[in-house]
Amino acid sequence: MPTRNVLLLFLCGLVAVVGLACGSGGGGDDDHAADDDVSDDDVDDDLDDDLTPDDDADDDNDDDVDDDLDDDLDDDADDVSDDDVDDDLDDDADDDTTPDDDSMPDDDVESNALLLMGADASGPASWQQTTEGWVRRDFPPPVTQGFIFDLGPSFFVDGEKGWTTWNVWGDAVTNGHDWLVYDLENGWQYDTGHWRAGAGTVVELLFAADADHLWATSYYDMFGFGSEHLWKYIGPIPVPQLTTLSNPQFTAMFFPNANSGLVSGYIGSAGFLYRYDGPGWTELAMPAGYESGSFDWLWLADVRNGWGVWEAYAGGRHLMALADGVWSEVTPPADCADYRPTQVFGAADYAITVDRSGPDHRFLEFREGVWTCRNVGGELYGATIRHALVLRDGTEVLAAATAPGDAPLLFLVTLDSVTPIELPAEISSINGVHALSPNAPEFSALVEP
Predict the structure, then answer these.
(1) How is the chain split among helix, strand and coil, in percent rounded to 5?
(2) What is the pLDDT of residue 449?
(3) Could you tell me if 426 and 118 are in contact, meaning their C-beta atoms sit under 8 angstroms apart?
(4) Are the CB atoms for 196 and 177 separated by under 8 Å?
């Protein structure tokens, strides 16, 4: 029984001792405090059941359905307290729009809030977009000792949780990596929920089918010689996968859910493609004519439909489409005939490409079943587009850099426009961007710089 009902019964019993009634009251009020009017109306309208304001400040304590617009558990409209459902866009655990009630800086997110991944004069950094502007989100320092410290790949799920690693090198040897995890309230923290993916390794690829199913590839190198491994996390423990392959080089992976996915790579000059079906793996044939290379990027709706970028072992790339399990090369529009993307990102019926090898200010966009060639503006002809997002509503975000100068750029792309987004003053370079809102894509992947 709710606490307020227990208290009500107690008070009713106490009132009964002195011979007074408890319940609806003689005039039909649904509260239990004295009114300052002289008569009650007959209709309980849950705002006040008389014609003048009550002379108390208590909430109505009836048992009717809470059908008003305030956030308490009764059906009046006389307070500003919080209920139990967090359905707003700020960073506290209530549904009001008052300032933060936590100890963090004001990091209330906008409906299309973004997280920049880049650097300033002091080194790698990230910035979260809030209602009050960009808020810097620092990375905890590396724990693993070494000489060179770089951020590895990063990955976000549903705009709520993300991961990255510190990759650490020693003197011509990989020393190891440290897992970091991100959430809206706490920013970047050490991830104590996942063990390192192999001793002395650095992480190269990262994917999370959901918040509880993490995948990674890592490699160990000493003086140019080493090995690479694929790992599936079961709880905190990384379990090696495809262990029968001899010296594989993993180049791409995508897991649309916890029980299925594709992984590609090469051994020597021959490409391979494997499908994950829950606990086991099935080798798939590379598309005919594309055996001497591998998929360097995958973006899937499911294991039978999606997009990929195939790269030849000897060089050269092609955008590929996967439809009902069959791969085919995408012919680019005439005005982008010489364009060769390195990555493709999609959501629902939308997709966008980037060419990180740049400089190239063009990109391909897929809407309503048609690929078109677009660009970020003629004045930025030498720009390199480094990363992209396709938000759930079809809006797109592009992270880019000028050439020369490597000055960071960010654009919001709609069907009819490409609009620059103002960046933090201190950012000196940009690697990519994630989204942190209900409009965020299900998956957001960023490879290391």
Answers:
(1) 5, 45, 50
(2) 67
(3) no
(4) yes
